[in-house]
Amino acid sequence: MIEVRELTKRYGGVTAVRDLSFTVRPGQVTGFLGPNGAGKSTTMRVILGLHRPSAGAATVNGRPYAAHPDPLRQVGALMEVTPAHGGRTAYQHLLALARTHGIPPARVVEVLEQAGLSSAAGRRVGGFSLGMRRRLGVAAALLGDPSVVIMDEPVNGLDPDGVLWVRTLLRSLADEGRTVLVSSHLMSEMALTARQLVIIGRGRLLAEASVAELIARAGTDAVLVRCPRAAQLRDLLVRHGASVTSAETGVLEVGGLAGEAISALAAREGLALHELTPRQVSLEEAYMELTRSERGIR
Q1: Are residues 56 and 157 in the same domain?
Q2: Is the pLDDT of residue 185 over 60?
Q3: What is the extent of the structural domain holding 55?
Q4: CA atoms within 13 A on the CB side of 146
Q5: Most buried among 26, 45, 115, 142, by the most CB within 10 A?
Q6: Which one, of 176, 128, 127, lies nearest residue 29 by Cα?
């Protein structure tokens, strides 16, 4: 488990994170979201012991990361840039990491295969593409078979096959009972991958909820209505305060009235409805609305 409690981090006169608290539990993928400059990377770096908090604390499995005698076996981390000596091969890079924790060479072979890099194990890292470097970073994160996995923008630089691979990997790690925290700016990926969300803005917590809860809070954006007498229905709904648009003949998108109210009005006027479907907002729409003020939008 990852626990962040009343965390504050200042850099001189700039407060990057302010009084932030949240919990990341095992058995699910937790998405860590927020606009640029929200404090996500700073928070992750504090969790990983790379930065010291100005106040508060961040613990992994009950203690600060630096207090673990075997950190690579406790936490696997992929940050935006994965340091690797360009003159070393992928195998050599991982083997050097493995030896610091008494991890056998056989495990290096396993994670190279898991990351899809077996054929590139003998190639020098300096010749790797960005996507291959990301895969190598994922392999390094999994090297100690950790119970906690933290990844910052893991799909950056990956092709569609690589994105699908990361999505499947994160889900499988959570299904094994591990704690998975992943940041991303791709709402479509978070909608497919994460179950829980932690959203911050300007260093403060904006929401800690499941994907379903966040979308439910945003409500329904509109109701899609199919009616053979759409023009007559449009006039009726507008008279009752609805906003109505139409992208094609016989189809209306109605805002401002619930489906039950639309159905009742149509029935009263004898207008047959062939479809009445509430259109739920997407995760991206719910996120954009939640963070609107944090992005300076009025």
Answers
A1: yes
A2: yes
A3: 2-216
A4: 32
A5: 115
A6: 176
- In the chain, the amino acid numbered 96 is A
Query: Is the pLDDT reported for residue 219 higher than 80?
Result: no
Residue 297's pLDDT band, with cuts at 50, 70 and 90, is very low
Same domain, 96 and 238: no
Question: CATH no. for residue 229?
Answer: 3.30.70
Q: Do residues 107 and 145 make contact, with C-beta atoms less than 8 angstroms apart?
A: yes
In a domain, 185, yes or no: yes
Count of structural domains within the chain: 2
Assess whether 79 and 148 both reside in one domain. yes
What is the spatial order of strands in the sheet that 275-280 belongs to? 243-248, 251-255, 220-226, 275-280
Read off the pLDDT band of 220 (50, 70, 90). Answer: low
**Whether residues 99 and 168 fall in one domain:** yes
Task: Establish if 293 belongs to a structural domain.
Answer: no
Same domain? 256 vs 198: no
In a domain, 196, yes or no: yes
